[in-house]
Write a structure and sequence with these properties.
Belongs to the TerC family. The chain is mainly alpha-helical and 240 residues long. The protein contains ten helices and no strands. It has one domain. The termini are far apart.
Length: 240
């Protein structure tokens, strides 16, 4: 249990919770839409069972993702995806949830929640796998704890979180920069550029704290700059 006294463990757990909350707004909308036609007596069951099934699938996906991040170049790809996700968080496009069908049958609603969450959880899976990558043997525990803490916030406190984001946009900007920070750290620790024994012909980066922090800062600033640039272009594109 010594890992519980490690600052890195708690920092990573905090990052995972923030990622879940910031990227989980769509999941809360899906849950509401899928259960909207259920009788009141079954609505709570639909939310609880559907969310539980989604959590189990999410943990399995993240476990696979953390394993795959040990394959050369996949961290590079994951870092690029995280940068894009962070940019879209700062400069979001139009999201359409109109194709989520509600059902008046409990199990049909539960299936809708699980399937929709599976399709929409790619961004969460990549971001959380990146945040948990440095936790060693306790990375899966981090993921499970983060989900257990953040899912109730998403499901029952989503409206409060949405209001806070609307009132304090800096929360969304900081979340996008956090994804860029994680992306920078992922990129420089990819086995292709970090492991001298792996693909010796590749350019190698020395794995020092200075390089890792510099890459993380660069990733955060890149997401901020590109996100703000794209956000500034959106009104012009709408006018055209």
């Amino acid at each position: 249990m010594d890992f519980l006294t490690s600052p890195e463990f708690w920092v990573a757990l905090g990052q995972i919770i923030i990622i879940d909350i910031l990227l989980g707004g769509d999941n809360a909308v899906v849950i509401a839409l899928a259960c909207r036609k259920l009788p009141p007596a079954q609505r709570t069951k639909g939310i609880i069972y559907g969310t539980a099934g989604a959590i189990v699938l999410r943990v399995i996906l993240i476990a696979f993702a953390m394993t795959l991040l040990n394959v050369p170049f996949l961290k590079l790809v994951g870092a690029l995806l995280l940068v894009w996700i962070g940019i879209k968080l700062i400069a979001p496009g139009d999201d359409d949830h109109g194709n989520i069908e509600g059902s008046d049958r409990l199990w049909a609603a539960i299936k809708t929640i699980i399937v929709a969450d599976l399709v929409m959880s790619v961004d969460n899976v990549i971001a959380i796998a990146g945040a948990a990558q440095n936790a060693g043997d306790h990375s899966l525990l981090l993921v499970i704890l983060g989900l257990l803490i953040s899912i109730p916030i998403i499901v029952w406190g989503s409206q409060l979180v949405i209001k806070l984001m609307a009132r304090f946009p800096i929360i969304i900007t900081a979340g996008g920069m956090l994804l860029g920070w994680i992306a920078g750290g992922m990129l420089v620790t990819d086995p292709a550029v970090a492991d001298p024994a792996n693909m010796a012909w590749m350019f190698k980066l020395e794995q020092t704290d200075t390089i890792k922090y510099a890459a993380a800062v660069a990733g955060a600033l890149l997401v901020l700059a590109l996100g703000k640039y794209m956000a500034s272009r959106q009104p012009r594109m709408e006018e055209a």
